[in-house]
Amino acid sequence: MPSLDLSRSRPLIGIVANEPSGDQLGALLVQALRERRPELRFIGVAGPKMLAAGCETLLPMERLSVMGLVEVAKVLPDLLRARRDLVRGLQQLNPLLVIGVDAPDFNLGLERRLRARGIPTVHLVSPTVWAWRPGRVKQIRRSVDLMLSIFPFEADFLREHRVPVTYIGHPLADDFPLQPDREAACRALGISLDSLVAVATDPSLVVQAVDKHVGVSNAPSAEDSGVEGPTATAAAPKAIKPPASKPQAIKTQASKPCEESGTALIAILPGSRRSEVELLGRPMLETAAWCHRRRPGLRFIAPMVSEALRQRFEAMRCEMAPQLPLKVVNGQSREAMAAADLVLTASGTATLEALLSKRPMLVAYRLHPLTYWLVTRLRLIKVRYAAMANLLVGRELAPEFLQGRCRADLMGPALLALLDDAERRAEIDAAYREIHRELRQNAAHRAAEAILALIDRAGDHRRHA
After folding, report:
1. Which of 95, 134, 139, 275 is deepest in the core (most CB within 10 A)?
2. Torsions phi, psi of 248, nearest 5?
3. 51 pLDDT above the threshold of 60
4. For 183, what's the count of Cα atoms within 13 Å in the CB-facing half-sphere?
5. Residue 399: pLDDT above 80?
6. Of 368, 374, 399, which Cα lies nearest the Cα of 386?
7. pLDDT for the residue 263
8. In terms of CATH, what superfamily is 175-439?
9. What's 12-169+441-464's CATH class?
10. Neighbours of 52 (CB within 10 A)
11. Does the keyword Lipid metabolism apply (predicted)?
């Protein structure tokens, strides 16, 4: 851990992000807080976006970025050392408060230790206790002075369990435009829009889909949907929209030949962690190759979060599908989604980003076999869907291919069928637009106001103690 400059008297806030999605959320929050209190200093664990926003970092974010029971077990001693170092370092700095951004397995423990030492704590992005290990709500109560919830059903759940919570909306919903600019995205990526015959959604179909009041109804069971994965029989959280008619399954008839349907651009997002890319890169590349053999006009783009992951994915591509028309880029995931006609993505924040981009998607995920066995054996998952996009809508608009179903012979036909089904894409577009509007609450502003109010209350308490 680097030496700390304690000579500056500026008021300080600790903030800890463990992975790229947290780095993005943390940067938006830091910017909003600085707009209101320019004198604030931020230090903790930061990625490139938080560093650009003016944060200082005590540890490299990559040291904390790991997911999965087995994967975490391999590096657990280092994670525990990192947390001890952070507790000591942040306690020495004596911040006004400490904010943990997502990553609850690491950050809640950090927050609990700091709170026990008299430092107020805030957690941004509620753990999915409504879906996974609900007993953690007791740990949350011990760990935080304030939970900032980004989904409305989370706030309701936490209030019922006596956790201090403020619903702020989702920061990404504020950051994404309601209407994605495909032309600008193609320019940013160096892709000629003229070379793509867009699989555009007919506006009249979107109007029809809106008129149907797209929402939740009779969500199919795991058996009905064909999803194999860590699902359970417990009811999912309330989706944002009220019930509507039960959706039709995606048609699986033979796809149109390329000459009839034109070409299209498919975005491939195998995840932001090396472990995800190792597990999902191959089946996603196999799916792309499967589709390209049947539609030679298809083109592909794969945005990667780092140069190291880009090189690893390129190596897989050279080994498995050297002739595939695939452009691999550093970053630019939003541009890739906005430019694409369809997204093949890992489960996680990327599914929400695809929703906010109004792009139809297929969702794939694999866990380490032992992690998957433990999750299913212990029935740790309490919701029907893996993708947040499906949880928000309340049905499987984005087909999910989990674990053993994450295969090219299953994902390929579903991808082409979705590409060919204009009515289905219009339904998806309408549903995603409605969710986007509901989540667009100026989240960074709400979060900053709630945090500053907590700081002021803590200051009043100290003055009167």
Report:
1. 95
2. -75, 150
3. yes
4. 1
5. yes
6. 399
7. 81
8. Glycogen Phosphorylase B; (3.40.50.2000)
9. alpha beta
10. 13
11. yes
